[in-house]
Write a structure and sequence with these properties.
By secondary structure, this protein is of the alpha/beta class. The chain has 2 domains: 30-147 and 283-358, 3-Layer(aba) Sandwich (Rossmann fold), CATH 3.40.50; 151-276 and 361-398, Response regulator (Rossmann fold, 3-Layer(aba) Sandwich), CATH 3.40.50. It has helices spanning 2-26, 44-62, 82-94, 107-120, 133-136, 150-163, 177-192, 211-218, 231-243, 261-265, 285-298, 304-322, 328-336, 395-398; strands at residues 30-37, 70-77, 98-103, 124-126, 143-145, 168-174, 196-203, 224-226, 250-252, 273-276, 341-343, 346-348, 360-366, 370-377, 391-393. Helix 3 (82-94) runs parallel beside helix 4 and helix 6 packs across helix 7 (177-192). The N and C termini lie far apart (66 Å).
Length: 401
């Protein structure tokens, strides 16, 4: 009996040892990557959407048996405040266990932190900020951007307004780098096309009363008002403009895109336009898979900045896989070599400024909160995806954050 017991014990010990060897062979190296965005504050809806998408990208990557590494996502909140962004960027870049990051929705936070990423040799992909200087000013090799710049957005806005037959535009912008940059690039593009800027007014981000600025703008009888702000301010500006008898169309940029825009502005936004990075109603299978995966996990429709964050995370994983090592320099070189990556916001190849050049979608807001894709504009060097399928309900009508 004891002999049988010994043999069974030897059998089970051998089996357990073999199982341990198999598990060891199958285990993947675990690496940490970062995400930074505004998880609190006035534009937290976009930050939370971006974080959700980065989490989704990690979850799907880790579920892939062919993935080289297992990823852990480290999430930090920059509150869309430059001073806070500097603190969290330093914390992330100085952490030797975090090898790369998808960072920043707000232009003011992105431009405040590029020196830090360069100092630590920490490779990043900006997922939401559009100020050109983020990549143009110092040309830091560590800093890449998946969502393009405001230059192309404002060229498209100026061309749309001109094609609609409007010759005069007034501008109201916030005093952040985002608002000032949009004003400068739009005004340059529109006047180059023969248009006239009748007046320019500014406000502090988070202001609640815009009546003085709107009264001043109304006096110039503009045919359009350009409002390059974030959704929380834009909704209020639209309502107060209509209350003051201003009926002309409003036009803006990607900062408008949020589940909260129409909830705040309502019918005051009807007949307005804004440029964006994608439409969740695009029939491209890549887009629909992302939208369905996101809805299944978070219960709402992802906005365009959620889509750019998702692309940033996936491009980061792809570069890490192709990198010669997990060192910052090698990951940076792999990012630079990114070519024709099949993103949900377009096919991504980084240009000489390390910006992704992609098509721009022009959205028209119709009665009842319907978002209609007015047109898809292919900018120089961009690859166009499948055309969107007409109009669809705005994210603000189908989701809550």
């Amino acid at each position: 009996m004891s002999r049988i017991v010994r043999q069974l014990g030897l059998f089970f010990a051998t089996a357990l040892f073999a199982a341990a060897l198999i598990a060891t062979a199958q285990a993947k190296d675990r690496v940490k990557v970062g995400f930074i965005g505004p998880l609190t504050g006035g534009v937290s809806v976009n930050g939370i959407g971006g974080r959700n998408s980065a989490e989704l990208a990690v979850k799907l990557r880790n579920a892939d048996a062919k993935a080289t590494y297992e990823y852990e996502l480290i999430v930090l909140d920059d509150e869309c405040k430059p001073n806070v962004a500097v603190q969290v960027a330093t914390k992330m870049a100085a952490d030797k266990e975090i090898i790369a990051g998808a960072t920043h929705y707000c232009s003011a936070t992105a431009i405040a932190t590029v020196d830090i990423y360069h100092k630590f040799g920490f490779p990043i992909i900006v997922w939401g900020a559009v100020l050109p200087d983020i990549t143009y000013r110092n040309k830091y090799a560590e800093v890449h951007r998946v969502n393009g710049t405001m230059i192309d957005q404002n060229d498209v806005n100026a061309e749309l307004i001109s094609k609609l037959g409007f010759k005069t535009v007034a501008v109201i912008h916030d005093t952040t780098d985002y608002g000032k940059g949009h004003n400068a690039y739009f005004s340059k593009s529109f006047t180059k096309l023969g248009g006239k800027i009748t007046a320019v007014q500014s406000y502090q981000e988070g202001d609640q009363d815009f009546n003085a600025q709107l009264t001043s703008l109304k006096g110039g009888n503009p045919e359009v008002i350009f409002v390059p702000g974030y959704y929380n301010d834009v909704g209020l500006i639209a309502k107060q403009a209509r209350d003051r008898g201003i009926t002309v169309p409003l036009v803006g940029g990607d900062g408008w895109d949020s589940v909260q825009l129409y909830a705040i502005g309502g019918k005051a936004l009807n007949g307005s336009y804004f440029t964006n990075h994608y439409s969740p109603y695009d029939t491209d299978p890549k887009v629909q898979k992302f939208v369905n995966d996101y809805k299944s996990r978070y219960g709402n429709v992802p906005d365009a900045l959620a889509a750019t964050a998702y692309d940033a995370a996936r491009i980061m994983f792809d570069a890490i896989k192709r990198s010669k090592s997990l060192g910052g320099n090698d990951i940076r070189e792999a990012l630079v070599a990114t070519k024709d990556f099949p993103g949900v916001t377009g096919t991504v190849t980084f240009n000489e400024n390390r910006d992704a050049v992609k098509p721009i979608v022009m959205i028209e807001i119709k009665d009842g909160g319907t978002y209609a894709v007015r047109e898809r504009v292919t900018v120089e060097g961009a690859t166009t995806a499948a055309a969107p399928a007409g109009a669809a309900p705005a994210a603000a009508k189908t989701a809550s954050q």
